[in-house]
Amino acid sequence: MMDRHDISASVISLPPPGVFFGDATVSSRLAREVNEDIAEIVRAHPTRFGGLASLPLPDVDAALNEIAYALDELELEGVALLSNVGGMYVGDPAFAPVLDELHRRGAYVFLHPQVPPYAAPLAQYPVWLAEFPFETTRAVIDLIYGGTLERCPNLRLQLAHLGGTAPFIAGRIASLADREPDLASPGSAGAEAYLRRLFYDTGLSNHASGLAATREVAAIERIVFGTDWPFASLPAGDPAPALADLGGAVRRGVDAEHARALVPRLLDRAVAGARA
């Protein structure tokens, strides 16, 4: 797929449901096996792949151990988190030590939606159609109003699918601070300020309407190309036709250079490989 679409390098991670299956021991073992497998792929093809670690949440101590192992020893690019784990959202105070450690490291964190912790109201439709974008939005709201993004400004946090519905309802999210001030974190910079500093990928969202909404809340430098492959196939020809009107230099930034803020080592390896 990468060769067909002239994609030089990709960042890979484990998709939902992740490694949590209700048993902490099993989750820790799976996380370690998955992370070592991804690291092996990266070692075998260093100019083509970077990897993100899975964490065995909700076991915070095990997750902290896995962060150290995956980032320091396996030298993966960052970590992948899910919107919720067993119904606990990523901004839950119980997960604060994990987010604080990632902040301390200035880590790259990819946030992907998870199956919601309730029965989908329209169960006849696939969960990715509406529930995944809503899950991302819930997680972002919790990260904002729970104080995580205020407390952890060094997180290099990327949202899947152009941020779900968060960019479209950014004004509504921000209005909570005025309408329900008791829910706003003391000293908060405001929801729109936090949304501006996040990164957004175009996976499953290569459409003009979503791109327009995201560009209203974040600079173009915060938007990076994503595929959601293999769960979503790419169109024949241009893999992101909605980006065609951006112009050459801007399009090249979205396709590649903007990712330097997230995975600089991978981009350097990819460039070196292209020159070899």
Describe the structure.
Helix 1 runs parallel beside helix 2 and helix 2 (60-73) packs parallel to helix 3. The longest helix is centred in the first third of the chain and has 21 residues, at 24-44. The chain has a single domain (10-275), classed as Metal-dependent hydrolases (TIM Barrel), CATH 3.20.20. The radius of gyration is 18 Å and the shape is globular. Helix content is 40%, strand content 12%. The chain has a 7-stranded parallel sheet with strand order 1-2-3-6-7-8-9. A two-stranded antiparallel sheet has the order 4-5. Helix 8 links the parallel strand 8 and strand 9 (223-224). The chain is of the alpha/beta class and 276 residues long.
- Give the proportion of residues in helices: 40-55%
Specify the overall morphology. globular
Rg over alpha carbons: 18 Å
Order of helices and strands: EHEHEEEHEHHEHHEHEHH
Largest sheet: 7 strands, parallel
- Number-wise, the strands total 9
Order of strands in the sheet with the most strands?
1-2-3-6-7-8-9
